[in-house]
Every structure is written in structure tokens, then in C-alpha cells.
TrEMBL record:
Name of this chain's protein: Rab proteins geranylgeranyltransferase component A
Cleavable signal peptide: none
Top-rank taxon: Eukaryota
Record field: compositional bias (Basic and acidic residues): 99-133
A Pfam short name: GDI
Organism (species): Ilyodon furcidens
Entry keyword annotation includes Transferase: no
Region (Disordered): 87-153
Length: 328
């Protein structure tokens, strides 16, 4: 990513730029792969690296020039790569068994921007993590301690072979990050016109895991008042707190250096509100100083509404699009 931004900046001021990359895909460790491409990448990472032969280029150098050896590949930052399958073992197929499949995998890596939308990623991943439940055979009477079968639709299960077959329907980021809509990277993308080379979507909702349940985090005013897990009193307290924390007050500065969680407790906020504010809005640890927690909360709130109901954007075809766009 860093080299791509520097190259774009040099090009912007009129310099001529030549890109040299030891890989066949963009973005190095920031890449986004189709599922098949990811399997190929894992296989390459697990192979023993060949010792690089250092050549003497001094005879080609002219007066005043200095030879700078490029660093080795950054694969040293990736260790212990393993593949676990939590899907059905039925119709199991070993991927990358033929030359045609290998070629298809390489194409999938190179043409990630031409794949279908990543909208189905959540659906595929959710289905993949579903464990197989033993099915009741026909004619058996349900046992007394077993609940009667519900009328809910049975979720479609997916096998590993199907994941490989449908691997171009979603992309997987090596580095999983979201962009704040008023963050420095988004401002840079707009200012440099690099944003024209990619498609972005707004994250539609933010979820948190609490007491064994997945709950939606109320972000905007509409979310707060539409929330079913908050009481009327909690909604008023949350709105009052979010409004008051946008401006620095003497009460806030009095807590400088003290944990943000302590500040939230002293604001008479309940346990659920403390959880939302600490883990899902400020996204800080419990012992984070109050001034840092408030700064993170304000940044979250400032980013709301610029492009949608949440403060986060992400590239449709994965985070690997960002370095690729700067290279273009």
C-alpha cells in the first residue's frame, strides 16, 4: 500500500513511474482473493522459499550512482498457515488437482476486480460455518425430551466442494479493515481522484455479541429510537450522552487519565449502553483513558451520515482494490 501511494504521488507531480512487482497480483499482503485464489496463495506461502542469488551489478553502475538492494519479500510476516474445513465432508474434492484448475486459480487472483459483487460473502460464510445436524429418519417417533420440529425454513448447507466451485462469488481480504467515511484515507482517495477507479459500499449495520446474542448497535438517532433492546429511558440517556460528548467540558477533562469505562459508569449509563459505547462505538479497551475514548466516540459520530447510516465504507471487491487503484 505504501509503495502504491508514493508511486501515485510521484505520477501526480509529473514524474514517470515504473512498477516492478515480484508477484502476479496487486497489493502484496493487503491483497483480496477469491476462495480458489486464496487456496493457491496458501499453497505458495507453505512452499519452502528458494535462496535468492545475490548478483554483482557494480559493473553496470555509472559514476555517482548507488546500489540499493531491495528487501526480501514480506512473506516472513506470515506464519503457521493452515486450512480447516468446518463444512460437510460429503462430496469432498481436493482443490487444484488439474492444470486447468491451477490456471483458473491464477486467473481468479489476477482478475479479482472482475468478479461478481461481494454481497454474497456473508451468506456463504454463514452457511459454511453451520454444523451438520443429525436428521430424523422417516417414520421415527420424536422422543419425549426432544422439541417438536419447527416450521422455520431449513438453512441450505454447503460442502467444501461447493465452496471451491462457487469460489468466485466472493472475495476474502488478507487484511480486514473498514474505512471511516471522514478518515484520512477516504479524504486522500477523493483528493487524488483515485476513488474513481473503485466501487465502495456503506456498511449497512453494526452488530455486537453480548450475553450469547447478536444485537444491532444503534448508531444514528433513527436507530436509537427504533431499537427494541433499549428502554425509553435508555434511549434518552444514550441520546443525551452522544449529544453532550461532542463538545469538551470540564467534567470530561476531570477524568483525563482515568478509564473510559469509569467515566461511562459515572454518567449513569446502564450495562448495555456501556457495552455499546465502549466496544462498538468508541471501540476501545476498558482501561483506555477517557480522553482517548471520547476522541474515538466523537470520530465515530462525525463520520455518521456522510454516505449512509453507519460511519464505515469498504471497497466492493475487497481491500486489495485500494493499492491497485493507486497503481493505476
Amino acid at each position: 500500500l505504501a509503495e502504491s501511494v508514493v508511486a501515485a504521488a510521484c505520477s501526480r507531480v509529473g514524474q514517470r513511474v515504473l512498477h516492478l512487482d515480484r508477484r502476479s497480483y496487486y497489493a502484496a499482503n493487503w491483497a483480496s482473493f477469491t476462495f480458489n485464489g486464496l487456496l493457491t496463495w496458501i499453497k505458495e506461502q507453505n512452499e519452502e522459499p528458494k535462496p535468492e542469488e545475490v548478483k554483482d551489478w557494480s559493473s553496470l553502475m555509472e559514476e555517482g550512482e548507488e546500489l540499493i538492494h531491495l528487501a526480501n519479500s514480506d512473506s516472513a510476516s506470515i506464519t503457521n498457515l493452515q486450512v480447516f474445513s468446518f463444512t460437510s465432508e460429503e462430496e469432498e474434492e481436493a482443490p487444484n488437482t488439474t492444470e486447468e484448475e491451477k490456471a483458473a486459480d491464477e486467473d481468479a487472483v489476477k482478475e479479482s476486480s472482475e468478479t461478481e459483487s461481494a454481497d454474497s460473502k456473508e451468506e456463504e460464510a454463514g452457511a459454511a460455518e453451520k454444523e451438520d445436524q443429525p436428521a430424523q429418519t422417516e417414520g421415527e417417533e420424536p422422543e419425549a425430551d426432544q422439541p417438536l420440529p419447527s416450521s422455520e425454513p431449513v438453512r441450505k448447507k454447503i460442502s467444501y466442494a461447493q465452496l471451491v466451485k462457487e469460489g468466485r462469488r466472493f472475495n476474502i481480504d488478507l487484511v480486514s479493515k473498514l474505512l471511516f467515511s471522514r478518515g484520512s484515507l477516504v479524504d486522500l482517495l477523493i483528493k487524488s481522484n483515485v476513488s474513481r477507479y473503485a466501487e465502495f459500499k456503506n456498511v449497512t449495520r453494526i452488530l455486537t455479541y453480548r450475553h450469547g446474542n447478536v444485537e444491532q448497535v444503534p448508531c444514528s438517532r433513527a436507530d436509537v429510537f427504533a431499537s427494541r433492546q433499549l428502554s425509553v429511558i435508555e434511549k434518552r440517556k444514550l441520546m443525551r450522552f452522544l449529544t453532550s460528548c461532542m463538545e469538551e467540558t470540564e467534567e470530561q477533562t476531570a477524568y483525563n487519565g482515568r478509564p473510559y469505562l469509569e467515566f461511562l459508569r459515572n454518567q449513569q449509563l446502564g450495562e448495555s449502553l456501556q457495552h455499546f459505547l465502549l466496544h462498538s462505538i468508541a471501540m476501545v479497551a476498558e482501561d483506555t483513558p477517557t480522553e482517548e475514548g471520547l476522541a474515538s466516540t466523537r470520530h465515530f459520530l462525525r463520520c455518521l451520515g456522510r454516505y449512509g447510516n453507519t460511519p464505515f465504507l469498504f471497497p466492493v471487491y475487497g481491500l486489495g482494490e485500494i493499492p491497485q487503484c493507486f497503481c493505476r
